[in-house]
Specification:
By secondary structure, this protein is mainly alpha-helical. It folds into three domains: about 230 residues, Clc chloride channel; about 200 residues, Clc chloride channel (Orthogonal Bundle); about 170 residues, CBS-domain (Roll), CATH 3.10.580.10. It has a three-stranded mixed sheet with strand order 1-16-15. Strand 11 and strand 12 form a beta hairpin. Helix 3 packs parallel to helix 10, helix 7 packs antiparallel against helix 8 and helix 11 crosses helix 19. It is elongated and about 100 Å long. This is Chloride channel protein.
């Protein structure tokens, strides 16, 4: 299994690299020749995280003073504030809606089953069906990019891959209302993953000033239009989504750092932390307002917080063995979950979705979920209520119309409860709260927990991949807490100690399954501590996470990596493949020739080249007086399209407009070259040129990037991979081994002091021997 996945990964990398063109004199690494086709037929495109230092950029930087830089810094913090407020309000709206829909559903069902269980089931199934239908209809007809959790797509975006539609306004609307329908409809999924996508959409829309398509935009917000600036905003949005979903601000920061981002710096850390703190304040304020009864059925549910601070105080050394077993079980079940969802999602894409049956599929899954959750508890005999403990605050059974611990469902006596209905016939948040609850030993039977584990695991696998917004955090916690509580029951029976709580083992089981499926460690550990409010369990959570991740890694990759591969998202992972050590940059370029452009090019030639291929970058060649060809830079396809559309830079002469190199004032602002986020941008077919326009020329010198990154042809592919990923590049020149060395730059050359007292002339005249003693040297030409 390991060797197969290893070989598949190597073949994927080789296939991507093989589509990159080269030439005899200089090779050129492009982003998989322009567009990479996804498995569903749509396309993805690389992002320009590199700063394009053309003359428009340099002129703009020269005009900016210290006051403008301070203004940009203030705006960045203001955007962080707005992202936190917006994401927090979106989370409040989603949770209020889900809890109220669920509350009305259970209240009506409980009131009707007092008279007729058949009528109660029909009403229960109908409400679920309507909610799920509304969700899948919104996604399929209005916002197709809102399906799924959205985390693989956002991870791809921060990795440098732009997927059409993932950060648009309609995707945000579809994500919010679709999550309300799918989660409120009782499907085996959660709203936490979609909240991460929601936060990213809010951040992106703020960064581009709204939506131009729906005429909801403001020029005041259109400050950060480059992909580089949007990347920072989207990172803040991801952290805000996790902070809102779990009320875990620190966990949100660590999630963004560990799971979704490929690039990080200390300044971004502060803004992400500030955004998460704002989300925590907004959510806390909303919950305080709802405690006064202003939120209907919201009550204490909705926002995940399973306080087990009154649970198990201590643990013995002998308990580490069953806890380690929980970690192994989590790794095995998590890896199996990833593999099953991968196979089923692949089959669904290849057979089911091609027939246009996404709405029917989601409705059938909804009916199956309603049948299982309603009918299985009917087959379970009720149990007598335990002796009431006034200090626990838990009532047995719960009154009709209420949901929580000890649900009276199809019981002959008023002092009985149905343990299977306590898990099934509940919201997932309350079911998890019941499984985590302390001082409720013997509330569940092992038969009921095992039945629920098998059925809910099956439902989670089947539901994953349907055309609705779906997160896997809460279903994973449900599955893990079920088998964790089962192990806890055996530990209580075997050790016979009074201080052992089954709820503690349920928490460890939840952590182990998430670690075995998603392969997160640090962020997940902090999230579990924050949502349970029990710091004493931190070492145990760390133990089961490490074990479950190690076991899961032995079988396959994490859930998000597997789903990204299934969706055709070309992620560059943190570590290059082992085979890259024996490959060079020249070998990776493949056999295609580079398509280059002369400095002064005819408009008709540009149009012909853009129509004949999908490359997104072109080397620009100039000729010296001696006739030698010289690469002077790189021009992007998007920049060429802007130039063709505006026509203001056309000239009649085939000679350079400025023989000194094009250092002249140009008629474009750098923002004009920025492509709208998650959109296709300008297409060559959208540009209309007259015959006279086609006969004119363009001097490309002012628009090209004169300093692209360059590597020698014999550099190992491992070093090329690390350079490409860590710098967030889109293109990389591969050139022959240079014949001359102008100098060497070391650490001291980069330590530029902000003072005018440095005698640079004296430094330049220092001998090479003296400089070498200082730790660097300069080799003169």
């Amino acid at each position: 299994m390991l060797s197969n996945h290893f070989q598949n990964g190597v073949e994927t990398v080789r296939h991507a690299w093989s589509r990159i063109p080269n030439s005899e004199e200089s090779q050129f690494v492009d982003d998989a020749v322009g567009l990479v086709r996804k498995s569903d037929g749509s396309s993805v495109e690389s992002l320009d995280y590199e700063v394009i230092e053309n003359f428009a950029y340099r002129e703009e930087q020269a005009r900016r003073g210290k006051l403008y830089v301070s203004y940009l810094l203030v705006v960045k913090w203001l955007f962080a504030l707005l992202i936190g407020i917006g994401t927090g309000l979106a989370a409040v709206f989603i949770n209020l809606s889900v809890e109220n829909f669920a509350g009305w559903k259970f209240s009506l069902t409980f009131s009707i089953i007092q008279k007729s269980y058949i009528a109660g089931f029909l009403l229960y199934a109908l409400i679920n069906l309507v909610l799920v239908f509304s969700s899948v209809y919104i996604v399929t007809q209005f916002a197709p990019a809102a399906a799924g959790s959205g985390i693989p797509e956002i991870k791809g975006y921060l990795n440098g891959v732009d997927i059409h539609g993932i950060l648009l306004l309609r995707t945000l609307i579809g994500k919010i209302f679709g999550s309300i329908g799918s989660v409120g409809g009782g499907l085996a999924l959660g709203k936490e993953g979609p909240l991460v996508h929601t936060g990213a959409c809010i951040a992106s829309l703020l960064g581009q000033g709204g939506s131009t398509k729906y005429h909801i935009n403001s020029r005041w917000f259109q400050v950060f239009r480059s992909d580089r600036d949007r990347r920072d905003l989207v990172t803040c949005g991801c952290a805000a989504g996790v902070a809102a979903a779990f009320r875990a601000p620190v966990g949100g920061v660590l999630f963004a750092l560990e799971e979704v981002t490929s690039w990080w710096r200390s300044q971004l850390m502060w803004r992400v932390f500030f955004t998460s703190a704002i989300v925590a304040v907004v959510v806390r304020t909303a919950m305080g307002w709802c405690k006064n009864g202003n939120c209907g059925h919201f009550g204490s549910g909705g926002f995940i917080i399973w306080d087990i601070s009154d649970g198990q105080e201590d643990y013995s050394f002998a308990e580490l063995l069953p806890m380690a077993i929980i970690g192994v079980i989590g790794g095995l079940l998590g890896a199996l979950f990833n593999q099953l969802t991968l196979y089923i999602s692949s089959w669904r894409r290849n057979h089911l979705h091609k027939k246009g049956s996404r709405i029917i599929e989601a409705c059938l899954v909804s009916l199956l979920t309603s049948i299982i959750s309603f009918c299985l508890p009917l087959l379970r005999e009720c149990s007598p209520c335990p002796e009431s403990d006034p200090t626990s605050g838990i009532e047995c059974p719960r009154p009709p119309g209420m949901y929580g611990n000890y649900v009276n469902f199809f019981c002959s006596s008023d002092k009985e409860y149905n343990d299977l209905a306590t898990i099934f016939f509940n919201t997932q948040d309350d079911a998890i709260r019941n499984l985590f609850s302390a001082k409720t030993i013997h509330e569940y039977s092992s038969q009921s927990l095992l039945t629920f584990l098998v059925m809910f695991y099956t439902l989670a696998v089947l539901t994953f991949g349907t055309a609705v917004p779906a997160g896997q955090f809460v279903p994973g916690i449900m599955i893990g807490s079920t088998y964790g509580r089962l192990v806890g029951m055996f530990v209580v029976k075997y050790y016979k100690k009074l201080n052992i709580e089954e709820g503690t083992y349920a928490l460890l089981g939840a952590a182990s399954f998430l670690g075995g499926s998603m392969r997160m460690t640090v962020s997940l550990c902090v999230i579990m501590v924050e949502i349970t409010n029990n710091l004493k369990l931190l070492p145990l959570i760390m133990l089961v996470l490490l074990i479950s991740k190690a076991v899961g890694d032995a079988f396959n990759e994490g859930l998000y990596e597997e789903q990204a591969r299934l969706r055709g998202i070309p992620l560059l992972e943190s570590r290059p493949k082992y085979e890259m050590r024996n490959m060079t940059a020249r070998e990776a370029c493949g056999s295609g020739r580079v398509i280059s452009l002369p400095r002064v090019v005819k408009v008709s030639d540009v149009v012909s080249i853009l129509r004949s291929n999908k490359h997104n970058g072109f080397p620009v060649i100039d000729h010296t007086r001696s006739g030698e060809s010289l690469v002077i830079g790189l021009v992007l396809r998007s920049h060429l399209l802007v130039i063709l559309q505006s026509k203001v830079d056309f000239q009649h002469s085939p000679l350079p407009s400025d023989p000194r190199g094009g250092d002249r004032s140009i008629r474009h602002d750098s923002h004009e070259f920025a492509k709208p986020v998650s959109s296709k941008g300008i297409c060559i077919d959208d540009i209309h040129l007259s015959p006279d326009d086609l006969e004119m020329y363009i001097d490309l010198a002012p628009f090209l990037n004169p300093s692209p990154y360059i590597v020698p042809e014999d550099m190992s592919l491992t070093k090329v991979y690390n350079l490409f990923r860590q710098l967030g590049l889109r293109h990389l020149f591969v050139v022959p081994r240079p014949s001359r060395v102008l100098g060497l730059i070391t650490r001291k050359d980069l330590m530029i002091e902000d003072t005018e007292n440095v005698n640079t002339l004296e430094l330049q005249s220092t001998s090479a021997f003296e400089l070498e003693d200082l730790g660097f040297e300069c080799v003169q030409e």
